[in-house]
Every structure is written in structure tokens, then in C-alpha cells.
User: What shape does this take?
Amino acid sequence: MADPLIDDVRLPDGPRDFPSPVATTLHASPQTDEHPSEDDSERNRVQRIQAAALVILAAAAVLSLMYIAKLILVVILAAVLMAFVLAPVVDGLSNLRIPRSVGAFLAVSLLLVTVAIVSYLSYARALEFMSEVPEYKIRIQRIVNEIRQRAEQFEKTTETVLPPEPEDKNAITIRERNSLRNFISQNVSTFSETVLAVSFIPFLIYFMLSWQDHVRASSVMLFQMRNRNTAYVTLGLIAAMIRSFIVGNFVIGLFLSAASMAAFGVMGLPYFYFLGVISGFLSLIPYLGVVLAILPPVIVGLGYLTTATFILTCVIVVGLHLFAMNVLYPMVLGKRLQLNPLAVTLALLFWGWLWGAMGLILAVPLTGALKIICDNIDRLRPLGAWMGE
Assistant: This one.
């Protein structure tokens, strides 16, 4: 007996028009999501390639923009760092019921007065040093002559081993005459642009301080509702990290300055108090700091330093630099930054290549901020873990 569930359904007055749904279900070849077709696989592959290409193009565009607008970005970031330095002053004045706009004006005025005083004292010390330039010129000329004589002796020694190459009598040597006028005319445009950009820093600091609460709240409102709490916490962590970074560097710079002044004073170097401050704070610059910190005492100490005291000066500066980088930095800033040495080195290489000397100064806080952002975004947490200790 035939099963009516699988018989073909017939209309009352005619032949079969369509098969039974059950029969169709039983005889059709099944296609499930576990085995996607080749077209779907190809489509997914093309979409992944397109997404990767868009990411690469976006990264290239961002890098190009950061390189082209490096002067503007450096000025903005420098203003941000100075605003973080002055924020406690404005907060203290606000606790005294002084309007935030007035407190920001007083803080910026204090900064400008401090810069003016430091510049005046530095200029005065520079004039005293310039008055003694003739004596330094004689000493430098004597040292240069000794180096030249040794170089000539070395050249004569090498000529006995390697014969010199024959000179081309028909060759014409052209020497370009460089003058101060040519140097100024070639760099006046860059200098004027830099001065104009730097002149905006006090105004940026003032508005960042007076509109701090508004800017932070508006920045959080840029995100969707479910991400606003994360954005608020992330901005707070970045602010705390930058403030700790600045205060920590200032404390370490004071320690290095005091130690350098004491060492240079015992060695009898002129202007030891001035040289100690310059050498101490120059030593904070990553990688190049140790070289830059040696130059001031060595240049000013020409004629005063013997071979032994010259070596001792280099040893003292290098020793203080290593002590600061390997002991003081982890002790003061290690808990806030939590960056491994490889990440810091790569960051210094990248930002130094992109923005030069200012890139080296800003590399550590920028990398620390990037790590905090990665730690608070689920998809980027593996990158934050890689950058961490």
C-alpha cells in the first residue's frame, strides 16, 4: 500500500503540477553552513584582501600627514605637556575660589616669567663665556694643531705602506663659498615658520587649562554610549601617566643637576653651577642625552681639564646617566609606564625618524599613551601586552 505522504500530489482535474514538499526534502541534496561553496570562500578572501589594503593605505596616509604636519603636531603636543605641568597650579587656585580662566592666565604668566628669567640668566652666562672666547680660541687652536700634527704623522706612516693615487692634472676643483648671508637667506623661511608656530604655545596652554573640563567631557561624548565609560577611564589614565612622566623627569633632572654641579665644582670647572644644570637635564634625552651631557663641561673645561680629569668627567656623566636610566627611571616611572625596553627602543627609533629631536623627547609619553589605549580596547589588548613588561 502506497504511503500518501510521499505520493505525488495531483490536482483533481489534471496531471501532476508540482512534487510533494516532503519528497523534495527527502531527495534534495543538502547544503549546510558547515561546507560553504567555493564562491563564498573566494568572496571572503577578496574581502580580507580589501580590508588589509585599506588598513595599509590608511596607515600610509596617517604617516604622511604626521610627517607633513610635524611642526603643528609637535607644537600641540608640547602645549599638552606644559598644560599638564601647570594643571596642578590651576587646580590649586580653583580651590581658592579663583575662576579657572583667571587661574589659567596666572599659570601661563608664571610660565612665561620663568622662561624669561632662565633665558636672561643663560644669556648673561653666555656673554661671560663669550668674553673669554679669545682665551678658549688659543687653547682650541693648540689642541687642533696637536691633532693635525698627529694626523699628518699617521698619513705619512700610511703613505709608506700604501702609495698615494696619482692626481688628475686636468681635474678642476670647485669650492662653494658659504657665507652667513646665504645661510640666513636659505633658512629664514623655516625660522619664521617655527617662531610663528611656537608663539601659539602660550595661547594653546591657556585654552587647554581654562577649558579642560569642557574638552574632556566633549571628547568622551564623541564615543557611543556603551564606550563612553571606557573612554573616560582611558583619558584619566593617560592624564595620570603624562603627569607622572613630567614630574618624574623633573625630579630626576634635579638630582642629576645637583650631582653634576657637585662633581664639576670639586673638579674646579668654571661656571660649574650653570654647567651642572645643563648637563643634568640634557642627560634625560634618550640615547643622545649621554653624548650631549658630556659636551658642556668638556667645551668649557678646555685648558682646565687634563687627560685624567677629562676621562673622569666623561666617567661621571656616563655613570650618572646610567644610574638615572637603570635605577631612578624604573623606581619613579616604572609603575606608570610599564613599557619593555624593546618597545621603548622601537618607539625612539620611529618617532626620532619622524620628528627628529622632538620625536625623541615625545616618544616615551606617546608610546605610554598608546599602550593605555591598547589595554582598554579588547581587540588591541594583545598589542598592549606585547608592549608591556
